[in-house]
Amino acid sequence: MSNDKFDEKTMARQNGVVQPLLTDLYQITMAYAYWKSGKVNDVAVFDLFFRTNPFQGEFTIFAGLEECLKFLQNFHYSDSDIKYLRETLPTTIEPEFFDYLKDLTCKDITLSAIEEGSVVFPRVPLLRVEGPLIIAQLLETTLLTLVNFASLMATNAARYRMFAGKNISLLEFGLRRAQGPDGGLSASKYSYIGGFDGTSNVLAGKMFNIPVKGTHAHSYVTSFSTLDDIQRVTLQHAQTHQQCNLLEIAMEWRNRLSPLLDASTEEASDGELAALISYALAFPTGFLALVDTYDVKRSGLLNFCAVALALHDCGYRAVGIRIDSGDLAYLSVLARDTFKRIADTHDLPWFAKLTIVASNDINEETILSLHEQGHAIDCFGIGTHLVTCQRQPALGCVYKLVEINGQPRIKLSQDVGKVTIPGHKEAYRLFGADGHALIDLLQRSSEAAPEVGQKVLCRHPFQESKRAYVIPSKVEHLYKVYWKDGYVSIAPKPLSEVRERVQASLRTLRQDIKRNLNPTPYKVAVSDDLYTFIHDLWLQNAPIGELS
User: Fold this and answer.
1) What angle (nearest 5°) sits at the alpha carbon of residue 108, between those of residues 105 and 110?
2) What is the DSSP letter of 349?
3) Which of 174, 287, 295, 475 meets the CB 3.0–4.6 Å disulfide criterion with 387?
């Protein structure tokens, strides 16, 4: 299968910004120093991993793999790239180095990864990159930027989905608040993967086949002042095809509903009514209206219900309302009670089930608080807190050298949490008797894989006394080879399947690991052999101090 054919048929187009120069300068200066030192044929293994779960939680969702594969597929320094580097780097750099760069591709790189959409944990490498040292080094920054935000965003979205509950729809409304256009597109893509049902971002809908949703803004309502602003008042009946005067029917309904809803027609805004009638005329089959421009109780609900019932008289059913300010719990319950009262009074059961959408700076705490208070919201539109990941704006993935020319490498630190786990490793997920994931086990690639029903000694990588035997009921090998010999070896799955993978993977975790308050940490261990290997290498590399 050729690269071009695969790209065209299986993978969405690559982001044009993602290219070899989307990197830190020191990657290129290191590449020259390696080249100058005669390390062109050195073979390295790098691990990409993170050290701490985000949002004070105990799980992370891995995302961004498809973009990493596109990057490897298209890695090539263009003539203009080489020209820029010649002009920018020190004049002492030998010209042959630029010839070397120009011919570089990822054909000798092997990339192994955990499946995109999987739940993952600290210290377990998400990607393992093997190949020539120079090219593997040059990939670092770009792979990190492709995985860091994608995984953070998918995790944030998955947490919102978890706390909202499976019966509430979630819409991503964050483009206008996102960190630039690319941040907005990435947020739309990875919030969908994390469990959101749609986005307001039209370009994301086109590029990634995400359902697009939206209503109208307050400006639409305030652009109407009086009923005279309505230019056209007639609508063709859905069944009889006769012309209906929507303005007249809505005015009649508003007068009839006024005593039922205890809302005065004199207090209700005629400009708002004009706006809602005009919007209903434009979208009779998709009428979902914003009702908080002036006053939900005194104006918005009365005007909406009048127009919704007028639409019903013309053979159409309204969709619902959106509330974008105020006490969302109280107003949503008020709206639901209003809809039920009208449904009962006029024998219209469907009216009681009209959709109530809530927006307005919603975050995790807002949703949890609304659940505690009691609300009648069917759908949350979430923007700023979702797409900017305000609770934690970065995941903190790192990319560390763990082997060079078959020799293990370890990075030491006085902060034990920053000591790397050396060597070429495999990762396995061991499941307990109840079917839940119990522990992730790292071991040397030369070791035999753990087996179902066989006792496995699992050790904390750095604390000698923390160890336990596990007899797994199921063993899942976490790594698959996604890129080898210049080709994608496993086709990335469609976004919808990655989205399903997220929920399936989360279901393998116990509830106490996923809870909001004081979640239980998930265990990541090393084999007994890898534990000994780490500590022997640590002693070999740690300097011996001298007391005087």
Assistant:
1) 115
2) G
3) 174
Q: In whole angstroms, how far apart are CA 295 and each of 234, 269, 292, 303, 514? A: 27, 9, 5, 11, 39
Phi, psi for 288 (deg, rounded to 5): -125, 115
What is residue 265's DSSP assignment?
Answer: T
Spatial separation of the C-alpha atoms in residues 276 and 224, rounded to whole Å: 9
Are 478 and 62 in contact by the 8 Å Cβ rule? The answer is: no
Residue 343 buriedness (CB in 10 A; 0-12 / 13-18 / 19+): middle
Is 90 exceeded by the pLDDT of residue 414? no
Q: Please give the Cα distance from 27 to 492 (Å, whole number).
A: 28
Chain-centre distance for alpha carbon 436: 24
- Length of the chain counted residue by residue: 548
Q: Tell me if 487 sits within 8 A of 1, measured CB to CB.
A: yes
pLDDT value of position 545: 83
The candidate with the shortest Cα–Cα distance to 222, out of 299, 158, 281, is 299
The answer to whether the pTM exceeds 0.90 is yes
CB 443 within 8 A of CB 488: no
- Residues with Cβ < 8 Å from 511, sequence gap 6 or more? none
For 111, the 3-state DSSP assignment is strand
User: Which phi-psi region, left, alpha or beta, contains residue 539 (left: φ > 0; alpha: ψ -120 to 50)?
Assistant: alpha
- What are the DSSP E strand ranges found in 216-332? 234-236, 243-245, 288-290, 320-323
User: Is 304:272 a contact under the CB 8 Å cutoff?
Assistant: no
H helices present in 262-396, as ranges = 270-282, 301-313, 328-345, 364-373, 384-387
Check residue 460 and give its pLDDT: 95
Please identify which residue in the block is written with the tokens 């990319």: 399
Q: How far apart are CA 188 and CA 531, in angstroms?
A: 41
DSSP per-residue string spanning 366-392: HHHHHHHH----SEEEE-HHHHTTTT-
If you ran DSSP here, which 8-state letter would residue 228 be given? G
- CA gap 97, 424 in Å, rounded: 30
141 near 27, Cβ under 8 Å?
A: yes
More confident residue, 88 or 15: 88
Please state, in angstroms and rounded to a whole number, the distance separating the CA atoms of residues 531 and 442. Answer: 10
89 with 160: CB under 8 angstroms? Answer: no
Q: Report how far residue 122's alpha carbon sits from residue 50's, in angstroms, rounded to the nearest whole number.
A: 5
CA 327 to each of CA 14, 59, 505: distance values in angstroms, whole numbers, following the listed order = 43, 32, 35
- Positive or negative CA dihedral for 534, 540, 543, 547? positive
Query: pLDDT tens, 217-267?
Result: 999 999 999 999 999 999 999 999 999 999 999 999 999 999 999 999 999
Instruction: Collapse the DSSP code of 429 into the 3-class scheme (helix H, G, I; strand E, B; otherwise coil) and give the result.
Output: strand
Short-list 339, 336, 343, CA closest to 358 = 336
- Give me the mean pLDDT over the 530-540 stretch: 93
Name the helix (H) or strand (E) containing 252.
helix 246-261
